[in-house]
Amino acid sequence: MANRNSQGFGLIPQGVVGSTMASQGQGKYYISSNFASAFFQGSAVQSKVGYLAQSEDGRTKLTLGVFNGIFYNASTTLKPTWSNHYVANTVPANSEDITAFVIDNPLQLYAVGADAAWTQAGVGKTYGVTQATAAGSTTSGQSSKQLNIGNVDNAANTFRLLRSAEDPENNDKTAANSTVIVTQNLNQYLQNTGTAGITWQ
User: Measured between alpha carbons, how far is 162 from 169 in angstroms, rounded to an integer?
Assistant: First the structure.
């Protein structure tokens, strides 16, 4: 039976490991003015030299968390502006840094679409996300990334597959686009002590 979803939707928070209280908290970080890469809601990010950067351009990249939106003063209207995605090369009114919000609990669970069929033997293994560059809708601001089932490793990749999300309309693991639950495997701040996988700007 085919799944209803036909494309990815990025990473959407779904509680935390151990079913403890999920505060849905997020941290405040910064994107440098005129940064050349886009960010879409639900995309994985990392910190490079104090600013956010994509951690989706390599399946072994360390992560800080998942991007959830920005706040800045628009250069066209000079008004405070909220957006759930960042358009590449955005320059605020006074060329200041752009405030970004990241879901940064290293024990956060996420629902994400799988780009291919998977088996129970793949549970507990680690995966990257699809596509090497930022991808998503400039209308909704939502990421279109999926879990890249073909890039699997016992321990080295960014996200660890825990189980099916049991989404009734997207629960067929023998077909592409089923919804699964993952958690960060390579959170750079609280779960790793080294710097492997970080490419500094």
Answer: 19
d(CA 126, CA 149): 9
With CA atoms as reference, report the closest residue to 199 among 183, 188, 185. 188
Q: How far is 24 from 14, CA to CA, in rounded Å?
A: 9
Measured distance CA(179)–CA(170) in Å, rounded: 6
DSSP string computed for 77-106: T-SEEEESSB-TT---TTSPPEEEEEE--T
Task: Retrieve residue 49's tokens.
Answer: 């030299």
Looking at per-residue pLDDT, the higher value among 199 and 93 belongs to 93
End-to-end Cα separation, the chain, in angstroms: 45
CA atoms of 194 and 173, how far apart (whole Å): 35
CA distances from 65 to 1, 32, 139 (A): 33, 18, 23
Identify the DSSP state of 111: E
Distant-in-sequence, close-in-space partners of 193: CB < 8 Å, separation ≥ 6? none
Cα–Cα distance list, 117 to 54, 134, 149, 170 (Å): 26, 23, 8, 12
Span 87-126, pLDDT tens digits: 999 999 999 999 999 999 999 999 999 999 999 999 999 9
